[in-house]
Amino acid sequence: MVHHKGPAPQQHDGSGLRIGIIHARWNDAIIEPLLEGTKAKLLESGVKESNIVVQTVPGSWELPIAVQRLYSASQVQSSSAGSGTSAGDLLGSSTTDLTSLSTDNAVSTGPFDAIIAIGVLIKGETMHFEYISDSVSQGLMRVSLDTGIPVIFGVLTVLTEDQAKARAGLIPGSHNHGEDWGLAAVEMGLKRKSWA
Ligand code: DLZ
Prior knowledge:
By secondary structure, the protein is of the alpha/beta class. It has helices spanning about 30-45, 65-80, 85-90, 130-145, 160-165, 175-195, and strands spanning about 20-25, 50-55, 115-120, 150-160. It has a single domain (about 20-195), classed as Rossmann fold (3-Layer(aba) Sandwich). The chain is about 45% helix and about 15% strand. The protein is globular and about 45 Å long. About 40% of the residues are buried. Ligand DLZ binds near residues 62, 120 and 122.
């Protein structure tokens, strides 16, 4: 029997799912491959490109509020379809905060089945790291339990840039954790539908 360090892989059909991704722009050289790994597994699982919505925020600290707003905006939008309001409008996103690394796209209709929050926190010389890591983890869990939507924890909290690279597949032989996040979103999105 083959044992895996991460979750033992399972195959799920994500063709009926809508997935949101919100990523921070700090440490973008690490974020970029994580985002690519995440999207690759979503697409491989059958999620349609048009059903993957990507938004960005400045840093990981902003992830919980962004996930919460994106989710509620998509709920409002689905209950008032045709009103012309998009989840992107309600999140307050605009083309001016987007970077070239992201394929930030227009928000199509319908609520999300799962939202993936991606950030990379690297410990510095001050206590910033501890405060942000703790608050972001707790904030994302709170949003997930308060809303009932699976929020996938795609936040690396590492001591060095090399540790981050080793989790983004940037060091030969290393694994890109973004792939696990994409698969987790599909599995949890489907489970959420079955529990509804
Ligand atoms: C301020 C800060 C620091 C020191 N380090 C990081 C980091 O390693 N990763 C990250 O995503 N964001 C960092 N930030 C920015 C905060 O998350 C936040 O964007 C700002 O404090 C503004 O609220």
